[in-house]
Design brief:
129 residues, alpha+beta, 3-stranded mixed beta sheet, 5 strands, 37% helix
């Protein structure tokens, strides 16, 4: 059980994670109970090594919001990886609903924006919530 203000128990990073970033992003999503569903549909998380430096993730409208792409820069630590997945999941759900909520910014928190989703999770992982 987690308590407010205590950091979440981190996922143990393994040699298999070093060999397979795909396995790592899937395990981070599972470890932090990130519900990869939206509008009754399964949403996939995919490690995409082609994302350019500075782009942590992307969810493409052309893929209908069913695939979250996570790039190498998001792997800096678990909290950033989880934040990226939650942020992109918010976009994915918006695409599936056909409605887009405010994007927010890097300081958004608890404001129902896309950034606010990921930032809240990252704060919890780091023991700030």
């Amino acid at each position: 059980l987690y308590r407010l203000g205590q950091p979440a128990k981190p996922l143990e990073r393994t040699f298999d994670h070093a060999l397979s970033p795909q396995l790592y992003v899937e395990d981070v999503a599972a470890h932090y109970n990130i519900n990869l569903r939206g509008s009754g549909q399964k949403i996939s998380v995919l490690f995409d090594e082609t994302l350019p430096p500075g782009q942590f993730g992307v969810t493409k409208e052309i893929e209908g919001g069913r695939i979250i792409r996570v790039g190498p820069d998001s792997l800096v630590d678990q909290a950033t990886t989880a934040n990226t997945i939650a942020h992109e999941l918010s976009h994915a759900r918006d695409y599936l609903r056909g409605i887009h909520k405010p994007h927010g910014n890097s300081s958004s928190l608890g404001d129902r924006s896309v950034y606010g989703s990921g930032n809240a999770l990252q704060d919890w992982i780091n023991g700030k919530r």
